[in-house]
Each structure stands twice: as C-alpha cells, then as structure tokens.
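User: I'm curious whether this sequence folds into something compact or stays loose and floppy. Could you predict its structure so I can see for myself?
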Amino acid sequence: MEDAEAKELTGRILVVDDDPHFVRVLNRILSREKFRVTGTTAPCEAIELFGRSPFDLIICDLRMPDCDGLNFLQIIRRGNNDVPIIILTAYGEVDTYLEAMNAGATEYLNKPVNTAELLKVVRSCIRKKNHG
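Assistant: Here's the prediction. I'll summarize afterward.
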C-alpha cells in the first residue's frame, strides 16, 4: 500500500539553496519521483516565485549569504501560509534547530542529506498538506 501511495503522490516543490550544484542534485532526486521542482539559488527570487504560484512544499537551506533560511521562513510564515517547509543545514546545532522549528519549519534535516530519508520526509509533508 505504501509503495502505491508513494507512486501517486505528486506536488510542486520549491528548492532554495545558495549552492547551484546542490539545487541540481535535489532537482534530479525529486524529479525522478515525479515531483515538479523549481530551484533557485536566490532567496529573494524564491519569495517572488512563491508569491506568483502555489507550491506544496519548500526545501530551504539554513545558511545563505543574502537572506538566511530563518529570515526566508519568517517571510513566508508572515503571510499566514501553512506550506510545509523543510530546512536543510550543514551546521546542525540544537539552537538553530529550535529557532527553525519555532519560526515555523515543518522539518529540519542535516546535510549531507540521505536520499531515502529526504524522500520519506518530502512525501510525509506533502501527504499532510494534501490531507491535512
């Protein structure tokens, strides 16, 4: 049953990370699973993209030069938007975890990301949003 559900699960995902290689890798992983992925290395562009069209999930890096993931998260949440947001970081400190969760992150994953774990979390977030 789980596999059949996973195959039917689709959604639009916005990926925001200042590392273009990482954006491409996530795009490849998620596209193979039939998700429609939009990736950007610019948080400001991501906010514009999000304002223009609905996404079912956002995956965002925590530390970026222009606008960090927490600021990005707060901007999205300020609009009373309940889109699930997964924060990714290579710096998995407890205080940043708590800050991210308190700011409204749905999940918090450490880099390097385990593909199976990422897909499990992505499916769970999209399933909750679709059936929430």
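Summary: The beta strands are 12-16, 36-40, 57-61, 85-89, 107-110. The chain has one domain: 2-126.
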